[in-house]
Amino acid sequence: MKTRPIxxxxxxxxxxxxxxxxxxxxxxxYFKDEAxxxxxxxxxxxxxxxxxxxxxxxxQIAIIAGPTGVGKTTMARGLSRYFKGKYAKKMAAxxxxxxxxxxxxxPPAGRNFDWKDFYIRLLMHAGEILCEKKIQxxxxxxxxxxxxxxxxxxxxxxxxxxxxxxxxxxxRRTKILIIDEAHxxxxxxxxxxxxxxxxxxxxxTGCIIVLIGTYRLLDIRDQSAxxxxxxxxxxxxxxxxxxxxPYSAFLSALVELRSHxxxxxxxxxxxxxxxxxxxxxxxxxxxxxxxTKCLMVSLTEAxxxxxxxxxxxxxxxxxxxxxxxxxxAGEEKLTDVSDEEIDYYQQHGSRLxxxxxxxxxxxxxxxxxxxxxxxxxxxxxxDSTGGNHAGT
Length: 392
Description:
Layout: H1 24-34, H2 40-55, E1 60-65, H3 72-86, H4 88-93, E2 100-104, H5 115-125, H6 140-143, H7 158-171, E3 176-180, H8 191-205, E4 208-213, H9 225-229, E5 231-235, H10 244-258, H11 273-278, H12 284-300, H13 307-313, H14 317-333, E6 335-336, H15 339-348, E7 360-361
Parallel strand pairs: 1-4, 1-5, 2-3, 3-4
Antiparallel strand pairs: 6-7
């Protein structure tokens, strides 16, 4: 696919000049942690997420889903910074006010998601002390504080920690709770039960809960009508080489990333666009991880940062097939049904036969499917009521 050529020699290095005299570790840490590219899919998804979060009321859930390695953690941190900046004046006036909390859901170690560990981590992020020593105090102690504390129930249980989290969020008057890697919550146990826990936390605290994760999060939408009503979905897509504009934007992001690599005499990336796309699937996170690995090998093993090294450090084609399978399955989940299909369902209580379905993808031009209608058979539509139909 042809794209507008980019002269990489005209792009000045983005890294600090003194970094070239730094250690290998300093160079690697800079590129890994500080080199950021505000590319167009990130910017578009960020803008959409801000609008979505800002427009929904309390006790609601926003789901931000995208493929692995697309840059979701970068987006999560960006949203956290944005909303903290939005409430900066109030935070300065009220030191106990924490408008945004950020947490990470780690993978389950067993058959069920570890809510106890999640609550402790969340309390630690909030700056709570003695998180692992929380106890469940009977309500009687609120009314009769002279009662002996020994009557308190055994603490450190998930229910006790959940109450501690709820109190913390209420006391801090938290508006938004961002949970990164949220798909880990759904890897074990019942999806509906896991979502009910999240929904209950939102309702008890009045927070907007933002779940950020892979397309696995979209399974939540298919559980029940109530879950659909209480959640809002934002898609964070990859760059798709089937569309010219995203493919050109991927080239711009690729060249921008190259300018952050603190090594001189790098090979030009633009002439090898298809190679970089093939080994990243259009996901900037995968691309950056790949370049970081190359940088580490080049600096620690004194090897030239060239195309041979890029080839050796890239994911295998079989690994890319696994990633692309997951991407295409997720993108398929975001494909909406046509008006024709929903009208048929509402009128007949059953789905339109597959050979008569025309589908469209969210945000794309509708794509008509092949139809089994006979020549001369009318398209399904509603006729006008009343009046003269001859002129219509």
